[in-house]
Structures are given as C-alpha cells and as structure tokens.
Design goal:
The chain has about 425 residues and is of the alpha/beta class. The chain folds into 2 domains: about 270 residues, Type I PLP-dependent aspartate aminotransferase-like (Major domain) (Aspartate Aminotransferase, domain 2, 3-Layer(aba) Sandwich), CATH 3.40.640.10; about 140 residues, Aspartate Aminotransferase, domain 1 (Alpha-Beta Complex), CATH 3.90.1150. It is about 40% helix and about 15% strand. The protein contains 17 helices and 14 strands. The strands form 3 sheets. Strands 1-9-8-7-4-2-3 form a 7-stranded mixed beta sheet, sandwiched between helices. A 5-stranded mixed beta sheet has the order 10-11-14-13-12. Helix 8 links the parallel strand 7 and strand 8. Helix 1 runs antiparallel to helix 3, helix 3 packs parallel to helix 12 and helix 15 packs across helix 17. The structure holds pyridoxal-5'-phosphate. The site of pyridoxal-5'-phosphate has 17 residues, from helix 4 and helix 5.
Length: about 425
C-alpha cells in the first residue's frame, strides 16, 4: 500500500540508524567514509557499487532528504544542492551547452530572472522569456538549440498559477524536458510530475524548511524522460569520459539524471548541501502539510479582508474568487493557492514605504515561506535596479507590496495590517 503524504513527510527515506537504533536521522557530520578494502574503493569510484566516498558527492543525512523529497514529489530520485539557485544551475547543467537555450516564463522569482538573463550567458547558455499564458508563443519560441522549458507552478511574486498541463504538452511535442520550480507551492499543494514535468526544482530555503533557518535546494527527477531519443542530451546518452565511457541513461535508466547530478554535477560543480542544513530541512518537512494548510487558510482570510480595505487597490491572491487564475487552482493546486500574494496600495510608492515601515508583526525581509509573516516592497529593494517597465512586467511596480502569510493567528495579522495601512495613508 502506498503511504499518504502526511506519513511520507515523516518517514520517507528514514529508518532507525543501523549502528545505534537512533530513531531520528543522525547528522552524519563527516567528510569521508572508510573503504572496506581497495576493491570496494575501486567499485565505488567506477559507479559499479553505490555507497559513500566523500561528502561533496553523498552523505547519509543528505541522502534521507533526497529520498524524502523524491517521495513527496512522486519522482524517481533527487539531488540536494546548496541553494535553490544552485538547484537551477544543476538542473540545466546536463541539458545545456554553449549556444543552447532555455524557454523561461516571464513570471519568475526575481533572482531567477537575473540568473537566466545575465549570469548563464557566461556559460554560453541563454534564456528566451515568454508569457506562459500564451501557449502558442511558448511553442513558437522553441528552436533547434532549445534544451529545456522552465516555469514556476505558483509563480512569483504570487497570485499566478501556471497551466502546467498545457506547457507540458508543448514540451512533450517538442521532445524537451519541462523543469518546474515548485518552491512556492511545495509538493503538498502541487505535484508537477503528475502534470507532465520532467524535473522539479526547489528552494528548500522557503516552505520545505519553513522557518527561515537554512539555504538549500533540491532537484527531483521524474525518471520518465527518454534522454536518448533525440541525440540532444549527450551528457546523459553518450559515453562519459570521466567514468571510462559509461553511458548514464543506458546504465541507470530512470535514475540517469539523478546519478549524473551526483557523480558529475556535485563532484565537479561542488554545490553541495551540508548535513546540518539537511537536518533542519528534514525537521521542517515533518510538518509541511500542517503548515501549508494554515498558510492557505490565513492567506484566504487576510486576502479577503485586504480586498475590502479602502486603501487597497488590488489583491492578486489566486485563492480569491476574483482572481483570473482561480479556476486553475482546483486543477493545478487542488489543496489551495498557498501563502504568497501581492497587494497594490492606492497611495503608491510613498504609502508602500510607510506601510512596510509601520508593520510590527510582519517583517520587511527578502525571504518568503516562513512560519512568520513577511513583506517586501520590491520597487525600493530587490527590484530597485530595474526600469519602471521591467518592474511592472515583473509584477513589482512602485505601488506593489509582496506578502508571505505566516501561520500566526489571522486576527493578529489583520490588526497589524490595519494599523500600518492607516498610518501609510494618513
Ligand atoms: C528563493 C527562491 C529561489 C532561489 O532559492 P535560494 O535558496 O534563495 O537560492 C528560486 N525560486 C523561487 C521560486 C524562490 O522563491
């Protein structure tokens, strides 16, 4: 019998420690692992036997987290990384090469827009940004050098839900992998693999850990993509010189991407998650469903209250009946629209600055997905380098404040918002 989500978030990947019986997963704070003998060492280095060599590649605490997130997403395997941004580079790394491109949604986390529009060019990669509500435009952007399609399930800065089924159909038709950043939804609200995603990436920094203590990332592999079909993914289908000509797809089948991510990606790029961080994230995941239910419930109550407030121009929460994406919630995120949305204030830039300065319970920080409620005025912080047009396109215009609703008492959140809105508009 397959276990339910609440059971898996506590048990998947973990078993009592074989050495001590410890019930909780120990933090294996070790760099290296003693080989049984020289033959054992050789087999490990040839990938003929799976085991622990060196913690840049594999670590038992990190391995439990990998298995747990893979189970929650319904994937074949997973690779943990040092941050969400590391996960994105690690996801693209085996697929891309100089001159190759990724088709990316215009609605993405601000840091991802910068990573994709600027930094990946240093590798000779590029991104083409498209409005993913225009499915024909997504299909039209694909060319012979396209190697992946990338979007977020619940997209930043909140209130937008991507039609994953429609995007997956385009990706499938073109023989390309679909990568979905599921950070804002988490596998509790959305399971992208069930909608056709090839890879799912996470910033574990956010809801998975859930309390603002860790920087981490995960890539989950669905195990369903045929890397050998088109000849476009030689890192996975062709002989790997650094492993005596081993072909990852032929040898590891549905785990080809996962093994490549560890044996080549972590080995050579070194974007490794440390066991202490993996421990914090494992602790967070044990209560993921409970927290997400409260994030949903609070966001619904608070967004409904904000929508009626006289100082508020607009509220983008996809969980509101007024949202143009309300219908997609039932199909893509059946358990709810999450805790992230934006509001626009009638008083514009000045009112937003006063509003965030006067909040007492909400913190003004560059983070989201915490147990505590957070806000950010993007135009004066993360997006201040952008032109007014770029700010509008990113959903971060001067009058917009992004809100990440925590799991406190909704009445207290509303009282804090009310007093800060009054002061902002006086
Ligand atoms: C935070 C975030 C990232 C980046 O993750 P880090 O852990 O900060 O590197 C990527 N995507 C989304 C949707 C995020 O919220």
């Amino acid at each position: 019998m397959a276990y339910g989500f609440d059971t898996l978030q506590i048990h998947a990947g973990a078993r009592p420690d074989p050495a001590t019986g410890a019930r909780q997963t120990p933090i294996y704070q070790t760099t290296a692992y003693v080989f049984r003998d020289a033959d054992h060492a050789a087999a490990l280095f040839n990938l003929q036997e799976v085991g622990y060599i060196y913690s840049r590649l594999t670590n038992p605490t990190v391995a439990v987290l990998q298995e747990r997130v893979a189970a929650l997403e319904g994937g074949a395997g997973a690779v943990c990384c040092s941050s969400g941004h590391a996960a994105q580079i690690m996801a693209l790394f085996p697929l891309m090469g100089p001159g190759k491109n990724v088709i990316a949604s215009t609605r993405l986390y601000g840091g991802t827009v910068t990573q994709f529009s600027q930094t990946i060019r240093r590798f000779g990669w590029s991104a083409k940004f498209v409005d993913f509500d225009d499915i024909d435009a997504v299909a039209a952007a694909i060319d012979d050098d396209t190697r992946a399609i990338f979007c977020e399930s619940i997209a930043n800065p909140g209130g937008y839900i991507t039609d994953l089924d429609a995007v997956a159909e385009v990706a499938n038709g073109a023989g390309l992998p679909l990568i979905v950043d599921n950070t804002s939804a988490t596998p509790y609200l959305c399971r992208p693999i069930e909608h056709g995603a090839t890879l799912v990436v996470h910033s574990a920094t956010k809801y998975l850990t859930g309390n603002g203590t860790v920087t981490g990332g995960v890539i989950v592999d669905s195990g369903t993509f045929d890397w050998s079909a088109s000849g476009k993914f030689p890192s996975l289908s062709e002989p790997e010189p650094a492993y005596h000509g081993l072909k990852f797809h032929e040898t590891f089948g549905p785990l080809a991407f996962t093994f490549h991510g560890i044996a080549v990606g972590l080995r050579d790029l070194g974007m490794t998650l440390n066991p202490q961080a993996a421990h914090y994230t494992l602790m967070g995941i044990e209560t993921l469903s409970l927290r997400m239910e409260r994030h949903n419930e609070n966001a619904k109550i608070v967004s409904q209250w904000l929508e009626k407030n006289k100082h508020v121009d607009a509220v983008t929460y996809a969980g509101l009946p007024s949202s143009p994406y309300h219908d997609r919630v039932a199909r893509i995120c059946p358990k709810g629209a999450g805790g992230l949305f934006t509001i626009a204030l009638k008083g514009g830039y000045e009112a937003c600055v006063k509003f965030v300065d006067n909040l007492e319970l909400f913190s003004h920080v560059a983070n989201l997905g915490d147990t505590r409620s957070l806000v950010i005025h993007s135009a004066s912080t993360t997006h201040r380098q952008l032109s007014p047009e770029q700010q509008e396109a990113a959903g971060a215009g001067p009058s917009v404040v992004r809100i990440s609703i925590g799991i406190e008492n909704a009445d207290d959140l509303i009282a804090d918002l009310e007093q800060a809105l009054e002061k902002a508009h006086s």
